[in-house]
């Protein structure tokens, strides 16, 4: 039973890596777009026009389903790994910037369902 669950986890991980590899967007590009928002995401600075411009730019760059999944995986990873980020604030950021996305930015988001 343990071997089966390990195999399933490995297959899921490989599938997510393949989806990100098919994208033209990198996590570095996603990080650059979100970087101006870090103060806001940590509740230490107001929401700025520069932050929203980065979010709009990412949304505009994510043209294909593979791009949108890649951005989702990068945001999901960042939401879980960057210290001090308020997850409710992160989840509401696109909406606050007037950018509709069909998922919440959260470590629990299933990016495989993003299309």
From TrEMBL:
Gene3D superfamilies: Plant lipid-transfer and hydrophobic proteins. It comes from the Eukaryota. The keyword Signal applies. The keyword Signal applies. It comes from Trapa natans. GO terms for molecular function: lipid binding. Plant non-specific lipid-transfer proteins transfer phospholipids as well as galactolipids across membranes. May play a role in wax or cutin deposition in the cell walls of expanding epidermal cells and certain secretory tissues. This is Non-specific lipid-transfer protein. The lineage of its organism: Eukaryota, Viridiplantae, Streptophyta, Embryophyta, Tracheophyta. Residues 27-111 form the Bifunctional inhibitor/plant lipid transfer protein/seed storage helical domain. PROSITE patterns: PLANT_LTP. InterPro entries: Bifun_inhib/LTP/seed_sf, Bifunc_inhib/LTP/seed_store, Plant_nsLTP.
């Amino acid at each position: 039973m343990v071997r089966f669950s390990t195999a399933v986890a490995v297959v899921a991980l490989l599938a997510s890596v393949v989806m990100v590899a098919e994208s033209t967007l990198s996590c570095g590009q996603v990080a650059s777009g979100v970087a101006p928002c870090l103060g806001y995401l940590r509740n230490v600075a107001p929401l700025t026009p520069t932050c929203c411009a980065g979010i709009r730019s990412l949304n505009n760059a994510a043209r294909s389903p593979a791009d949108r999944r890649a951005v989702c995986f990068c945001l999901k990873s960042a939401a879980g790994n960057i210290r001090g980020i308020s997850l409710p604030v992160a989840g509401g950021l696109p909406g606050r910037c007037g950018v509709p996305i069909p998922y919440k930015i959260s470590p629990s988001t299933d990016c495989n369902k993003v299309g």
